[in-house]
Amino acid sequence: MDERWRVAHLNLAESSRRFFELDSGATVEASEGWLFGAGTASHPVISNAVFRLDDRLDPDELIERARGFFGARGRGFAVWAREGVDEDRELAGALERA
């Protein structure tokens, strides 16, 4: 993968984390492998986001963890992935199956 795609994706995740920090009612869960952000709005794309930060993280594990995190809040969520990037093809397949 072109390193620029990876860095751009990580930058998007980090800037999203910072936006969540501006929302006093938001909850963020972050590890070295993922970032989940649940804002005060219930919109699944803008305010309830999942980012895979480590391409080695199993997609099914990411989805299971996200379902637990957002399910506990009664929310849906959007998974941000990179179109046409080999590392996210497996993730896209897992999302389609889920």
Tell me the radius of gyration.
13 Å
Strand order of the largest sheet: 1-2-3-4
- Regions with little confidence, pLDDT below 50 for 5+ residues: none
Q: Tally the helices: what do you get?
A: 3
How far apart the termini lie comes to 25 Å
Helix fraction bin: 40-55%
Anisotropy-based shape: globular
**What class do helices, strands and sheet pairing give?**
alpha+beta
| Strand-residue proportion | 15-25%
List how many beta strands DSSP finds: 4
Global mean pLDDT: 92
Q: What is the quaternary state of this protein?
A: single chain
Note the run of SSEs as H and E. Answer: HEEEHEH
Question: Biggest sheet, open or closed, and with what strands and sense?
Answer: 4 strands, mixed
Please tell me about this protein's structure:
- The protein has 98 residues and is of the alpha+beta class.
- The protein contains three helices and four strands, in the order αβββαβα.
- The protein has a four-stranded mixed β-sheet with strand order 1-2-3-4, sandwiched between helices.
- The radius of gyration is 13 Å and the shape is globular.
- The two termini are 25 Å apart.
- The model has no long low-confidence stretch (mean pLDDT 92).
